[in-house]
Amino acid sequence: MTTFSTFSFGCKVNSYETEAIKEELSNIGYRYISQLPADFAIVNTCAVTSVAEKKDMEKIRSISRNYPQTKIIVMGCFSQLHPERIEPIENVIAVIGSSRRSEIPLIIENNTDKKLLVENNSRIFAYEELSISSYNSPYRAFLKIQDGCDNFCSYCVIPLVRGKSRSRPKAQILEEVRRLAENGYKEIVLIGIDTGAYEDADGSGFSELIEDILKVEPRSFRIRISSIEETQIDSRLISILKTDKRLVPHLHIPLQSGSSKILSLMRRKYDLDRFITLTDMLKKEVKDIALSTDVIVGFPSETEKDFKDTCEFVKRVGFMRTHVFPYSRRPFTSANLMKEQIDPLVKKKRTRELILIGSKLAEAYLNAFSGKTLKVLIEEELPSHDGNRLFRGYSENYLDLQVNSKKNILGEFVEVTIDSQGKARII
What we know:
The protein is of the alpha/beta class. The chain folds into 4 domains: 3-120, 3-Layer(aba) Sandwich (Rossmann fold), CATH 3.40.50; 126-248, Transcription Regulator spoIIAA, CATH 3.30.750; 249-368, 2-Layer Sandwich (Transcription Regulator spoIIAA), CATH 3.30.750; 373-426, CATH 2.40.50.140. The chain has helices at 12-27, 50-66, 77-81, 83-86, 104-110, 158-162, 170-182, 206-213, 235-243, 260-266, 272-285, 304-317, 344-367, and strands at residues 3-8, 31-32, 40-45, 71-76, 92-96, 115-117, 140-144, 146-147, 166-167, 187-191, 222-225, 250-252, 290-297, 321-326, 373-382, 389-395, 400-405, 413-418, 424-426.
C-alpha cells in the first residue's frame, strides 16, 4: 500500500489544509504514517517571516537528503512566493502554490513528470473546497471558513500569496460543523486568513454565520474565534458574546503597534482611540472576557518612544496574552523598501522587554480569577508523580490550566475554581 507523511508549518489554516488532504488521501486508500520513510512526503509551507521560510527549506532539504526514495510534494505560501527555490531540489515531484491542492491525489496516482502548479496571479484564486470530519485532536477541531486577504498591510506578503478575500459557502460550513459535532468534538475554532471578513453569497456576514452555527445540532460544542480585526467586531457579535455562553468570551484582536505613527506606516485600518474604545466596551459588556493580541516590534523607523508607547498601550488594554514578533522584512512589500530599518539587536531587546510585560499581564489576569468558577475542556493527560492523574485543558476564556483527578476526564467539560496561587481545582 502506498504510504505518505505530512508536515505543516505556520498558521492554523495551513494545519487545517494539511489535515484535509491527509483525510482525503486516507479515504481513497493511501496509508498515512506519522514518521518517514514513506513513499510520499507532503510539506505545507509558510512565508509570513524569513524564519518561517528557513524552516520550510530546512525540512524539504532534510527529507531530500535523508530519504532519497521519498517523493516530495510542496505546497503553501512559500511555494507560491518562491517556487524557483523549491523546484530544483532533488526528489521534489510537485510544487503547488495556494490553490490546486485538491490535485494532490492525482499527482500521487500518476507520479510521472515533475509538476509546477503555481498560478502567476495569486489574486484571482477562487475558494478551494477542502473539508474534514476529524482532526489530530479528538476534542478540539479547527474549521476553515475563509481564505485570502484584501488588507495589504505594508509589512505583509500574505495578500500576494493567498489571493483576494473569499469565503466558503455557508451550507458547507454548517454541514462540517454538524459532522464534527456528531463525531464528538467539544470545541470548534473558526479560522481563516482574515476570518472576520467572511461573507456568504447571500450577503450575510460573520456574525450571522456565528448565529447559524450555534443552531446546529447536536449542540454539544462551544465555538472559539481564532482571530478577528478590530474593524470586524460589530454590535451583533458583542450581543452574541453576552447572551450565548457557547461562544466563548475570548477574542484575539491583532494590535501590531501602540504607536499612531507606526500604525499609519503599517497601513492598519484603525486608530488607537477606536481600539481602546472597543476593548473597553468589550470588557464592560462581556463578563470575564479575555483579550489576546499580536504585536510587531522593530518596524522600520520605530523609535524608542514609539516602542514605549506600544508598551504602555498594551498595559492600558490589559491583554491576557501577547504574542510578540520582531519585524521581518518581506519581499514585494512597501515596508521592505523603507530606509530606516531597525538594528536586529534592538529588535531582539525590545521583543524581550514586551514579552516580559505580556507575562506580567497574563499573571495578573489569572490572579483576577481567584475563587471564581471556570469551565475547562480537558484535552490532554500529563505525567504525574503524586498518585493522582494530572490533566490539562483550556477554560472558556483561554486560560491554560492543569487539574488533578482520580478518574479519567479526557474530553470532558469540568468546572474548576482557581485558588490564590493560580492553581485549578475541580469542584
